[in-house]
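Re: How this chain folds, sequence and tokenised backbone to follow

Filed under: protein folding, tokenised backbone structure, sequence and structure records.

Contents: The amino acid chain and a row of whole-number tokens, matched residue for residue.

Body of memo: The sequence and its backbone structure tokens, given next.
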Amino acid sequence: MLDAHGDRIFVGSSDHMQIEELNTSCDTVRILRIPDYPLALTAQQVRAERDARLDIPLPPGVSSLPPHYVEAVEDLPSQETRPAYAGMRVDATGAIWLQPFRGLSERGGPEPWLVLGPDGNWLGSVEMPGDFWVTDIGVDEVLGIWMDALDVQHPQVRHLARGQAANLESYQPPIGLGNSKAISGPDPRNLGQVDRFHLLQPFFSSGR
């Protein structure tokens, strides 16, 4: 995943909850991360994902899934971890927004995006509506596409209220990162206690 702000390039692979910041020479400037972010999957979550792949709409006249499809789903390798995030955007202030990955069985309802400030400070999380696809993030607004009950797309702008950031602890990066700066985040078990943003009702929508 790739995004940019000013003369900085932000790259993420989603293998870990971290983002690499590069300069215009593609040298690593620093690495922003939330250490020990829980990505492990339980056996119940793996089973739920398999069941979700089998619980799909069938075309008219078809009463069951083809046996070879069911067998292929059941034979899928069991993943031990999930991707850290499914999307990344850098807003107008340089803050980095991460959309956590959700499996098929977890979709629906609000999405809690994670936010790291331009200085690496942990800023909290924002719940995005489940029917709202984010396309851009400004200083005090979030632009996106709202899907109505008929799956019709409507441009929408939502107001974003920002608060003060929480501080993070900085530490020396591992050998091999050159002059990069690694910044750690809060204990992931306390993520729900840090909330510095509020996404309010839309002040523009073509469908409302």
